[in-house]
Specification:
heterotrimer, A alpha+beta (506), B alpha/beta (496), C alpha+beta (100), A: 506 residues, alpha+beta, 18 helices, 41% helix, C: alpha+beta, two-stranded antiparallel sheet, 32% helix, binds magnesium ion, binds zinc ion
Chain lengths: 506, 496, 100
C-alpha cells in the first residue's frame, strides 16, 4: 500500500479561526485590551462576572465584523443575536460565554486562495504549479474570549490552577469555513490568506504568538470519488502554521490507519501534541456538554443598517488579491514576486512608494522581495517596524541602476540602512565605494591580475571558461568591489580571447 | 416622622436634622427592623457621616433633591461599593462589592442616606421571605404571617415605620405582593425604566427595581430619583426620568379603568379580598373614572409561562456562583468539579436549587422547544392581550394577590401552590408593563392590595389614579400595632 | 405517568453542578414533576407561527464607544477571592479532559 494516505483517501478539512479584534476595550466591558500584563490587571467587574454587572456591546467590533464580511464577499445580517453558551470552567467567569449562535452577523462568503494544482503535490515543480481555489466562508460571528487557566505546576508554583482574567472578554471574531480544503498545505494557504486580509483591513493584528489568531480544524477522510463525508474529528487550539500543518498530517495518518484496518472514526475533540507529533482524544462527542444556548436576555439583538454597511464598504482598502492582480499588470511582475509584495499592506505600500521614487518597479520589486525580505526575516520584523524609508531604498536602487554603486556593495550597505537609516549616497562617498567606471583603471587591474594568474588565463584561452569567475573575483577584490562587474568581465574576455569574442558567459 | 412626607417636611423646616433622623432610624432599624427579621445589615457610622454632609447642604439651601437627608434601605440584592451584598444566600457569604451599583449611586447622588439592607427570599426567589439565611421576616400586622416576598423585608420596614421608603425588586410580583401583604405602596416600573446595573440578576428580562412607600406621592418622588437612562444597562430605556409629581392632580374623571373578567372569577380569589378590591374600584368610579370590561384571555397560562422563562434565565444567571472568584467555596475540595458541586450545593437553598434545576432542564437539549421556546411564544400572546386591552382602557385594575398574608411555613413545602399565587402579578413582568399595588382595605385585620396596571411608560397615569384613590381613602394612614411584637416573635421562634 | 425521571434530574443536576442527596433527589423529582405537569398546560395552546418574545419592550442595541476605562485595582478584583496566588485566583487542579 502506498505510504501516503492521500493517495488512498480524500482529506476534507474545514477550519474555524478565532481572531482577536483590534479594539482598545473589551467586547462587553470598558476594560483595556492589553497583552503581557500581570494577572487580573486588565479587568473590570464585568469581566470578573461580579454579581449585578451587565454587558454593553462595543461599537467598534460591529464595524470590524462588517469589514471582514465585506472583504470575504459575505452577506451582513441586518439582525444578529447574542446567545449564551452555558458551561462551567474557571476561566469562564459567568458560567457562560456570550456568542452568536443561530443568527451570526456575517454569513455565506468566500475567499480565493492560490494552491498547488495537484492536491498532493510533492516535488518542487509540482508545488510551483498553482491555481486559484475558492473556499467558502460559512459564517463569522462575534464572541468573547475566555481568560487563561495556568495548569503547569512549574508556572503556577503550586498544585493549584491559577486564573488570569485579563483575556476574558477580549472581542473575537470566529470565522468558519466550509469543508472545502483538501490538504494541510491548502489549509495553511487559506489561513495565511485570511490572516493577511485581517491585517490588511485592520480588523486584527492576528499575531499568532500572542494568541490573537487561533485555529480549530475539522478533519475527515473519504475514499476518492465518494460523495458522502466521513466522520470528522475536531482538533482544538492550533496556534502556529507549523502546528496546523503537523496536526493535520498527524490526524490524517491516525484516521487512515483506523480506516485501513477496517475501523470506524469516532466523532471527537482532539488535541495535538507537538512534541510527539500526534493527535489524541480530548473528549468524545457523546460526552459533550449540553450548552443550553439561548438568547442573552441582557442584550438586545444587533440591528445593522444598510447605510452603515455602505459607509464601511466605501472605506475598505484594496485587498491582497486585488493588489496582486494590479501589481502583475501595472508593474509587469511575476506572480511569485507579486505574491510576496502583497503579503502585507505595509509591504505593498513600501513597494509602491519605492518603485515610484526610484522610477524602476522591476528593480524595486527585486530588491524588496529578495534582499529586503531577507533582512526582515533575519530580524523577524515587519517593514513598518524599520527605520528604512522607501525614499532611502529608492536612492540606493538608483545608485545601482545608474552604475554608481555595484550591486554587491549596495547589498552590503543594506543591513546598515535597515537598522539605522541614513543617506546611501553620503555613506557611499564617505566609504569611498563609488563604482569605478574608469576603463583605464579597470584595464590596469585586469592586466595585473592576468599577469599574476597565468595558469588560469591559459585555461580560459584554451576554451575552458570556468576560471573566468575566479579571475573576475580577483579583479573585483583589487578594485575593493567598486568596479562594475559587467565592465570587468567584458575587459577580461577581450584581453584573454581578443576582440570579437562574446562577453556572455553562461 | 415615620413617613417620607413627614421626614421631608421636618428636614426642610429644620425641625430635625438628617443626623437626628438617621440616628433615630438606625435605632428603630436595630430594634423593630431586626426583630421583624426585616433588616439584615446596617451601616451606622458611614450613614451618620453622610447625614452630616447632607445637613450642611440642607442648611446652605443646596439640597440635591427632595430626598436629601432621608434614610432608606436597599434590598440585599443591590450592590454598594465596599458594603456586603448577600442576596440572603450562603453562597454570597461573604461578599463585599468592589463597585457601586446604580441604585446606591443615584440615591446617594440625590443626597439620600443608605442605612442598610433588607431581608428577602434567597436570590429573590420566593413569595414569603422565608427562603433566607437570615430567617423569615414577620408581617408587622400579624407576626405569625409572612410579609410576602421576595421584597418582604422592604415592605415590612416601611409598614413598621422604620424608614419612609425602601427599594424592592420585582421579577414576578416581588414588590407588589409584599406591598399588598404589608399595607404599603409598591410599584414595579416599566421594564427598562430603572437601571439594573448593580442589581443581582434573578431573571434578566423580567427583573425591575421599584419604590416601596406609604403613598403614591412618595412613590413618585422615589421613582423620579431612581429612573432614567443608564448606558451601563443595555435594556435601559433611552428616556430621561419622568416628572411625575405634576401628574398627581387628583383628577380621574373620564379615566377608563379596565376590569379583566379573568381577574374576577369566582373561586380563585378570597371573597374578602375581592370585596375590598371591588370597593376600591368603586371609589375610583365615584371619583369620575369609567369602568369597562376587558379580557386577558391568556391569564390562565401566565404562571407556567413565567416560571419557565424566569427559571431558564436564572439557571444561567446563577452559574457565576462557582466558588472561584468570590463568595463561598466549600472547604477541603480536592478538584475543580468538587469545588463547583460542593460550593453550589452547600451554598444554595432548596428553592434556588429547585429553580436552577427547572431552568437547566427546560433549556437542555430536547426540551428547549417544548418548554422554553413555547413559553417565549406565549409571552407574545400575553403581551398582545394587554395591547388589545389598552385599546379600550387607560389602566387595568384588579387584586394584587388572591389572598391576604398567609401563615409562615404554610406553603414552603408546596411550590406549585406558592407559584399559583402569582397569577395577577407575573403578567406585568412578562409584558414589561408598569404596575402598582396600593392598600385598599383590610380583611380579618390584614391589608389587601389593589393592583393597577398601565401601558408601557405609563407610570404617571398609574400614580395619578393611586394618588386620587389615596386622597379619598385613609388605608395608607393605618399603622400596625407594634407594642409587644418582639415578645410575640420570640415565642414564635421558640415554638419553631 | 411521570414527566421527569430521576435520571433526568440527575443529568440536569450534573449540568448545573449541583449534588443532590438521595432525599433531595426524591423531593426534587417530585417537585419538578408537579411543576412540569402545570407547565404542560401550555401544550394546549396553538403557537404555530407566533414569534417568541425575549424582551417585552422593543429597544435598539445600545453601542458603547470603544474607549478603554482604567481597569479596577487588582486588589479590588481579588478582594473576595477565596484563594489567590499573587494577583491570580487559585482554584483546585483541573482534572485532565474537563471543560474546553
Ligand atoms: Mg467553534
Ligand atoms: Zn468560538
Amino acid at each position: 500500500m502506498s505510504q501516503d494516505p492521500m493517495d488512498r483517501y480524500e482529506v476534507v478539512i474545514g477550519l474555524e479561526v478565532h481572531t482577536h479584534l483590534k479594539t482598545d476595550s473589551k467586547l462587553f466591558s470598558p476594560a483595556p485590551v492589553r497583552y503581557g500584563d500581570l494577572p487580573n490587571h486588565d479587568v473590570h467587574p464585568i469581566d470578573l462576572a461580579m454579581p449585578g454587572v451587565l454587558p454593553v456591546l462595543n461599537q467598534k467590533v460591529v464595524g470590524l465584523a462588517i469589514r471582514l464580511g465585506l472583504a470575504t464577499h459575505s452577506s451582513i445580517q441586518e439582525r444578529s443575536v447574542f446567545s449564551r453558551k452555558n458551561y462551567f470552567y474557571p476561566d469562564l467567569p459567568k458560567g457562560y460565554q456570550i456568542s452568536q449562535y443561530d443568527e451570526p452577523v456575517v454569513s455565506d462568503g468566500f475567499l480565493d486562495i492560490e494552491v498547488p494544482t495537484k492536491v498532493n503535490a510533492r516535488s518542487k515543480k509540482e508545488k510551483a504549479e498553482t491555481c486559484v481555489k475558492r473556499v467558502g466562508i460559512t459564517r463569522a460571528h462575534l464572541e468573547e474570549d475566555a481568560g487563561k487557566s495556568i495548569h503547569d505546576t512549574a508556572v503556577a508554583g503550586s498544585d493549584a490552577t491559577l486564573i488570569d482574567l485579563n483575556r476574558a472578554g477580549v472581542p473575537l471574531l470566529e470565522i468558519v469555513s466550509e469543508p472545502d480544503l483538501r490538504s494541510a498545505s491548502e489549509a495553511v494557504a487559506y489561513l495565511r490568506s485570511l490572516r493577511s486580509i485581517l491585517r490588511y483591513i485592520d480588523v486584527s493584528d492576528a499575531d499568532m504568538e500572542k494568541g490573537q489568531f487561533r485555529c480549530d480544524a475539522n478533519i475527515s477522510l473519504r475514499l476518492h470519488g465518494e460523495s458522502e463525508f466521513g466522520t470528522r474529528t475536531e482538533i482544538k487550539n492550533l496556534n502556529s502554521f507549523a502546528s496546523i500543518e503537523g496536526a493535520i498530517h498527524a490526524e490524517v495518518i491516525r484516521q487512515s490507519e483506523i480506516l485501513d484496518d477496517g475501523g470506524q472514526i469516532v466523532q471527537a475533540t482532539m488535541l495535538y501534541d507537538v512534541d510527539r507529533n500526534r493527535t489524541r482524544v480530548m473528549r468524545l462527542k457523546e460526552n459533550a456538554d449540553d450548552y443550553r444556548y439561548f438568547d442573552d436576555p441582557d442584550l438586545i439583538p444587533l440591528q445593522i443598517e444598510e447605510a452603515f454597511i455602505e459607509a464601511i464598504r466605501s472605506e475598505l482598502p484594496e485587498l491582497p488579491e486585488q493588489k496582486r492582480v494590479r501589481f502583475a499588470e501595472e508593474y509587469n511582475l511575476g506572480s511569485a514576486e507579486a505574491e510576496i509584495l502583497v503579503s502585507s499592506r505595509s509591504m505593498a505600500d513600501f513597494f509602491e512608494e519605492t518603485a515610484q521614487a526610484c522610477d524602476s518597479a522591476k528593480a524595486a520589486a527585486n530588491w524588496i522581495s529578495r534582499d529586503l525580505r531577507r533582512e526582515l526575516n533575519e530580524r523577524d520584523l515587519e517593514v513598518s517596524d524599520l527605520e528604512l524609508e522607501p525614499v532611502v531604498l529608492a536612492k540606493l536602487i538608483r545608485l545601482v541602476e545608474d552604475g554608481r554603486l555595484t550591486a554587491k556593495n549596495a547589498r552590503d550597505l543594506l543591513p546598515e540602512l535597515v537598522d539605522r537609516g541614513g543617506d546611501p549616497e553620503q555613506i557611499m562617498q564617505e566609504r569611498n565605494l563609488e563604482a569605478v567606471s574608469d576603463s583605464g583603471l579597470i584595464d590596469t587591474l585586469v592586466q595585473t591580475v592576468m599577469q599574476e594568474n597565468g595558469e588560469a588565463v591559459e585555461l580560459v584561452r584554451s576554451g575552458d571558461d570556468k576560471p573566468l569567475n575566479f579571475l573576475m573575483g580577483k579583479v573585483m577584490q583589487a578594485s575593493q568591489g567598486k568596479a562594475s562587474p559587467g565592465e570587468v568581465r567584458k575587459t577580461l574576455v577581450e584581453k584573454i580571447k581578443g576582440n570579437g569574442t562574446s562577453g556572455e558567459v553562461s | 416622622m415615620d413617613s417620607l412626607t413627614s421626614q421631608r417636611a421636618g428636614l426642610e423646616s429644620g425641625e430635625f436634622s438628617s443626623v437626628e433622623l438617621v440616628e433615630a432610624t438606625l435605632s428603630r432599624a436595630e430594634a423593630e427592623g431586626r426583630t421583624l427579621g426585616a433588616v439584615v445589615g446596617l451601616r451606622g457610622e458611614s450613614a451618620l457621616s453622610e447625614a452630616a454632609a447632607s445637613d450642611s447642604r440642607l442648611r446652605a439651601g443646596e439640597a440635591r433633591s427632595p430626598l436629601e437627608g432621608t434614610p432608606f434601605l436597599l434590598k440585599d440584592n443591590m450592590v454598594m461599593q465596599g458594603e456586603p451584598t448577600t442576596c440572603a444566600s450562603k453562597i454570597l457569604e461573604p461578599f463585599i462589592s468592589p463597585y457601586e451599583g446604580a441604585m446606591a449611586e443615584k440615591l446617594r447622588a440625590a443626597g439620600a442616606i443608605v442605612i442598610g439592607r433588607t431581608n428577602m427570599d434567597e436570590f429573590a426567589m420566593g413569595s414569603s421571605t422565608e427562603n433566607s439565611i437570615f430567617g423569615p421576616s414577620h408581617n408587622p400586622w400579624d407576626p405569625t404571617r409572612t410579609c410576602g416576598g421576595s421584597s418582604g423585608g422592604a415592605a415590612a420596614v416601611v409598614a413598621a415605620g422604620v424608614t419612609g421608603y425602601a427599594l424592592g425588586s420585582d421579577t414576578g410580583g416581588s414588590i407588589r405582593q409584599p406591598a399588598s401583604f404589608c399595607g404599603v405602596v409598591g410599584m414595579k416600573p416599566t421594564y427598562g425604566r430603572v437601571s439594573r446595573f448593580g442589581l443581582v440578576a434573578f431573571a434578566s428580562s423580567l427583573d425591575q427595581i421599584g419604590p416601596m412607600t406609604r403613598t403614591a406621592r412618595e412613590c413618585a418622588w422615589v421613582l423620579e430619583a431612581i429612573s432614567g437612562h443608564d448606558e451601563r444597562d443595555s435594556t435601559s430605556i433611552p428616556e430621561p426620568a419622568p416628572r411625575l409629581e405634576s401628574a398627581l392632580d387628583g383628577d380621574v374623571s373620564g379615566l377608563r379603568i379596565g376590569l379583566p373578567k379573568e381577574y374576577f372569577v369566582e373561586g380563585g380569589t378570597d371573597p374578602e379580598v375581592l370585596a375590598r378590591v371591588h370597593a376600591g374600584i368603586k371609589e375610583l368610579e365615584s371619583a369620575g373614572a369609567k369602568i369597562v370590561e376587558v379580557s386577558l384571555p391568556h391569564t390562565e397560562y401566565v404562571v407556567a409561562t413565567y416560571y419557565l422563562v424566569a427559571t431558564a434565565e436564572a439557571s444561567s444567571n446563577l452559574a457565576r456562583y462557582d466558588g472561584a472568584r468570590y463568595g463561598r467555596r466549600a472547604e477541603g475540595v480536592q478538584d475543580l468539579d468538587e469545588m463547583y458541586r460542593r460550593s453550589r450545593s452547600e451554598g444554595f437553598g432548596d428553592e434556588v436549587k429547585r429553580r436552577i434545576l427547572l431552568g437547566t432542564y427546560v433549556l437542555s437539549a430536547g426540551y428547549f422547544d417544548a418548554y422554553y421556546r413555547k413559553a417565549q411564544q406565549v409571552r407574545t400572546l400575553v403581551r398582545n392581550d394587554f395591547q388589545k386591552a389598552f385599546d379600550t382602557c387607560d389602566l387595568i385594575a384588579g387584586p394584587t394577590y388572591p389572598e391576604t398574608a398567609f401563615g409562615l411555613g404554610a406553603k414552603v413545602d408546596d411550590p406549585v401552590s406558592m407559584y399559583l399565587g402569582d397569577i395577577f402579578t407575573v403578567s406585568a413582568n412578562l409584558a414589561g408593563l408598569p404596575a402598582i399595588s396600593i392598600p385598599c382595605g383590610f380583611a380579618e385585620g390584614r391589608p389587601v392590595g389593589l393592583q393597577l396596571l398601565g401601558p408601557a411608560l405609563g407610570e404617571a397615569g398609574l400614580l395619578r389614579a393611586a394618588d386620587a384613590f389615596q386622597r379619598r381613602t385613609d388605608f395608607h394612614e393605618k399603622r400596625p400595632v407594634l407594642d409587644g411584637i418582639s415578645e410575640r416573635i420570640q415565642e414564635l421562634e421558640k415554638a419553631r | 405517568m411521570s414527566r421527569i425521571s430521576p435520571e433526568d434530574v440527575k443529568r440536569t443536576a450534573a449540568l448545573a453542578r449541583l449534588s443532590l442527596s438521595d432525599d433531595e433527589m426524591e423531593s426534587m423529582t417530585r417537585d419538578l414533576d408537579r411543576i412540569l405537569e402545570h407547565a404542560d398546560q401550555l401544550k394546549a395552546l396553538d403557537t404555530e407561527g407566533i414569534e417568541p418574545t425575549a424582551h417585552a419592550i422593543p429597544l435598539r442595541t445600545p453601542l458603547r464607544v470603544d474607549r478603554a476605562a482604567p481597569a479596577i485595582d487588582p486588589e479590588q478584583a481579588l478582594l473576595n477571592a477565596p484563594l489567590r496566588e499573587g494577583t491570580a485566583f487559585a482554584v483546585p487542579k483541573v482534572i485532565d479532559g474537563e471543560g474546553e
